[in-house]
Design brief:
Blueprint lengths: L1 H19 L11 H8 L18 E5 L2 E5 L1 H9 L13 H8 L4 H6 L12 H6 L14 E2 L2 E5 H6 L3 E7 L6 E10 H7 L8 E5 L5 E5 L37 E2 L23 E6 L2 E2 L4 E2 L5 E2 L5 E3 L40 E5 L5 E2 L8 H6 L1 E6 L8 E6 L6 E3 L5 E8 L7 E10 L3 E6 L4 E4 L8 E4 L3 E10 L4 E9 L11 E9 L1
Parallel strand pairs: 3-16, 6-9, 15-17, 19-27
Antiparallel strand pairs: 1-2, 4-17, 5-6, 6-10, 7-8, 7-15, 10-11, 10-14, 12-13, 18-20, 20-25, 21-22, 21-24, 21-26, 22-23, 26-27
The structure holds calcium ion (4 copies).
The site of one calcium ion (CA) has 7 residues, from loops.
């Protein structure tokens, strides 16, 4: 019991540090990620080198609606910036196993052969394949989700949006600025966002991530992607102005775009205020983010997610400031949009990931992307290289007509595309009205008549079938036969026909 209390005390210390260094995953003074990298040195910079290795995302109910949070937000939500919550609530099954096994490098070795998340793959096997050992939805049978990489030149070639706005922080200084970039809504359309998408999680290479729903949400902490934000007013006071009140001022009005504006002026932006992926501030490229010796990210470029305030307010004094006897003291309930303005974004994950897919390995999209001024969008977006099943009768796509005396040959081919290796149900089936459904079962090298359910041909990882493979050869009774070849994005034994081809032959 005493040992447990000591462990919890240690975690408490780590989490207090979290509240100081919000921007970095490798939280100052924390030993868990060094332990992991000592045990698995080649996994540095991979997606496993992240909070999500041991911490879970989560959901909480608000007015009958469930709000989903990523691992960083969930930890801060459950645990609080003040460390008042219970850290154990934020651990996934791998994190729990690590904790109860001693929370050191030997604990990682001790649980290497365990299957912490119960998905059928041992922890070391998953880690070798760069799959999360504490997330049963991620395993080595899944393939990286569809992705698109954008260069800065490509983003600049898209329709640009410029807006003047307040960046209101809780703890740092506030400022007004003019940001230019691409509306995130437009970027996602360009990437081919799917109708199934519900939101995005953005990542910075220091490990910070933040979730944004597509549509407006009543939770004041959630900034939405789509649509226009409310118009804002410009709030000016000499007491707030850092250029005038050198001791207690908290708002920087020094940007050229502030010139000529007066207190309570309406802020007018052509096309309104939007969530943008900014690449310019005051018309200039932004300073690229770098991780300092103190593990704090400085700089904001090359790309920053910039959400406007959902509710316009004046800039308020920093919550850290001793002197709150000012015109706009810190107000918890005011909109601190700058806290959700993720700096140096290199990854946008469109949620939820399509079935059978998993996260891309973020190693490639880390600091290298900052240097190369690139960003990757992946997840619930169009797959430009999907599996293509092909079924042919006598070498033709059909429909065709033959005589009862003619022998026919049915062949299937598959280009696995982006889903190469993904576990799947394979279906080779035929339908004719008098005899109902037939399934070709590869293991038996034979066709099986309708027995109340279709039988999968195979249940294995997708591979390229080329040259085509013959599944039927012979003569058929008169009738109209539809032959199907399909592969699913899962291997649950039920036919979904995610990718499907059909050929019809009429025998007379
Ligand atoms: Ca597992
Ligand atoms: Ca797993
Ligand atoms: Ca503020
Ligand atoms: Ca299936």
């Amino acid at each position: 019991m005493k040992k447990f209390a000591a462990i919890m005390g240690a975690i408490f210390m780590v989490m207090v540090t979290v509240s100081v260094v919000l921007s970095a995953y490798h939280h100052e003074g924390e030993n868990d990620s060094p332990n992991f990298l000592a045990q698995y040195p080649d996994k540095a910079g991979t997606k496993l080198d992240h909070c999500a290795l041991c911490h879970t995302g989560g959901k909480y109910e608000q007015k009958g609606k469930w709000v989903s949070l990523g691992s960083c937000q969930w930890c801060h939500y459950k645990y609080g910036y003040d460390g008042s919550g219970n850290i154990v609530d934020t651990l996934n099954t791998y994190g729990m196993d690590y904790l109860v096994s001693g929370r050191n490098q030997s604990a990682l070795a001790a649980i290497a052969d365990k299957d912490s998340d119960g998905d059928g793959y041992g922890n070391a096997v998953e880690i070798a394949a760069i799959r999360y050992p504490g997330n049963a939805n991620d395993d080595p049978s899944k393939v990286p989700a569809p992705s698109r990489v954008y260069t800065k030149a490509q983003l600049e070639a898209m329709s640009q949006h410029t807006q003047f706005m307040l960046m209101n922080t809780s703890r740092s200084g506030d400022f007004y600025a003019e940001y230019t970039g691409v509306p995130v809504e437009d970027l996602l359309k360009d990437a081919g966002i799917l109708g199934s998408a519900s939101g995005i999680t953005v990542f910075s290479p220091d490990g910070w991530s933040d979730y944004h729903p597509l549509e407006a949400d009543p939770d004041p902490e959630l900034y939405h992607v789509n649509g226009i934000y409310p118009e804002a007013l410009f709030y000016y006071d000499t007491e707030a102005d850092t250029a005038i009140n050198l001791t207690d001022g908290w708002c920087d009005y020094g940007a050229p775009s502030c010139a000529g504006r007066k207190h309570l002026d309406s802020i007018v932006n052509a096309n309104g205020l939007k969530m943008i992926l900014a690449f310019k501030r005051e018309g200039q490229n932004m300073e690229p983010g770098v991780l300092g010796d103190d593990n704090k990210l400085s700089g904001e470029g090359p790309f920053r997610i910039v959400p406007p305030q959902k509710v316009s307010s004046p800039p308020d004094q920093s919550s850290n400031a001793a002197n709150q006897d000012v015109i706009w003291p810190y107000d918890y309930d005011w909109d601190h949009n700058a806290g959700s303005a993720t700096r140096t974004v290199t990854i946008i994950r469109v949620e939820p990931l399509p079935e059978g897919t998993t996260d891309v390995d973020v190693l490639e999209a880390g600091w290298k992307y900052v240097d190369e001024e690139k960003i990757i969008v992946y997840g619930a977006i169009a797959d430009t290289n999907p599996p293509i099943p092909d079924i042919k009768i006598n070498g033709q796509d059909g429909p065709l007509t033959v005589s009862t005396g003619d022998s026919i040959s049915v062949t299937v081919g598959l280009a696995a595309g982006s889903r190469l290796g993904q576990n799947a149900d394979w279906w080779v089936v035929a339908y004719e009205s008098a005899t109902n459904w037939w399934s070709y079962v590869y293991a038996q090298q034979s066709w099986i008549g309708w027995s109340g359910a279709l039988q999968p041909c195979l249940q294995t990882g997708l591979f390229n079938v080329s040259p085509a493979f013959q599944v039927f050869s012979g003569r058929l009774w008169p009738g109209v036969y539809d032959f199907y070849f399909a592969v699913d994005s899962n291997s649950d034994g039920n036919p979904q026909g995610t990718w499907l081809d059909m050929a019809r032959v009429t025998v007379q």
